[in-house]
Amino acid sequence: MHIIIDRLVELAEKIRTQMEIDSYRIFHGRGRRFPDLEFVTVDYYQPAILVTLFFEPPANWLDQLVANIKPLFSYESTVLVVQHRYLPNAPSEILWGELPDALYARRGNLLFNLHLAQQQNSGFFLDIEPARQWLELHAKDKRVLNLFAYTCAFSVVAVAAEAEKVVNVDMSSAALNLGRANHQLNNLAKNKSEFVAENILKSWSRVKKPGPYDLVVIDPPSYQKGSFIAEKDYAKVVRRLPELMPTGGLVLACLNAPELSESFLKQQFEEQCPQAVFIERIKPHADFPDIDPEQQLKLLVYQLPSTSE
């Protein structure tokens, strides 16, 4: 527990000295680098500290944590939220403070709407920041396809980085509505983004229509019963890449499934799109250390040649 308290001491100092703090992971126990703390992560979305418990902690552990960190923070400027991910529907409770009506993840000058304490996922994933940084460097003047867009954080970053256009595809209309709200929140031009509510695996003609694309982002759920199971469905996406980008381009393939290795993802390209050239695996975020790199988030970059070459 001491390492968590030490890092919260560092956060308290930041709050005292900085007006605006980018959202970040304070502590990542899930990577098994810290013995006996594998069950907990701690994130900061100003002004909320989010403690997520992935299985029930030892008796009195949470009470001890709260007792140690209470003196560090002001109730007026900080909210402590605990999510019990190990319980059905992953309920959350607010242990002190009050959540503001509007709460955002902050990334430099960009903001992203959050729905903390309302459902399992906050609406913004901190671990995939290296992929957002990569996209920021490569999106300028590109026509981007954002598959499994969720709340469209990739799109916000790409449009802000002067992409020609971003087409966001997700089967959830509610998620895409949040995506639209994220674009509006950042005052991004409406004609630079498009939102397509479709089941990707069943609507390739609808996905293909706004193309061709210069850059494709694939960021699916690892397991979503009835819609996408990475182990069997990732290949179906990869094999479509040549028709989505006939003039060639870059592919950012993401996979957040600890049970599936980097070799699994590479195999999908070797078998389904052999003309794609592997460029690099983007280095995982330093805030998310893991004893096994194969269990970390996989972010692979490929180059597709033009089909006329």
Descriptive report:
By secondary structure, this protein is of the alpha/beta class. It contains 9 helices and 16 strands. The strands form 4 sheets. A 7-stranded mixed β-sheet has the order 10-9-8-11-14-16-15, sandwiched between helices. The protein has a 5-stranded mixed β-sheet with strand order 1-2-3-4-5, with helices on one face. The protein has a two-stranded antiparallel sheet with strand order 6-7. Helix 3 packs parallel to helix 4 and helix 7 runs parallel beside helix 9. It is globular, with a radius of gyration of 20 Å. The termini are far apart. The mean pLDDT is 94.
Concise summary:
With 309 residues, this protein is α/β, with parallel strands linked by helices.
Write a concise keyword list for the protein shown above.
28% helix; 309 residues; five-stranded mixed beta sheet; 9 helices; globular; alpha/beta
% residues in beta strands: 25-35%
Spatial strand sequence of the major β-sheet: 10-9-8-11-14-16-15
Question: Mean pLDDT score, rounded?
Answer: 94
- Report the span from N to C terminus: 58 Å
Order of helices and strands: HEEEHEEEEHEHEHEHEEEHHEHEE
Gross morphology is: globular
**What does the largest sheet look like?**
7 strands, mixed
- Structural category: alpha/beta
E-strand count: 16
Radius of gyration: 20 Å
Number of helices: 9
Instruction: Report helical residue fraction.
Output: 25-40%
Q: Give the low-pLDDT segments.
A: none
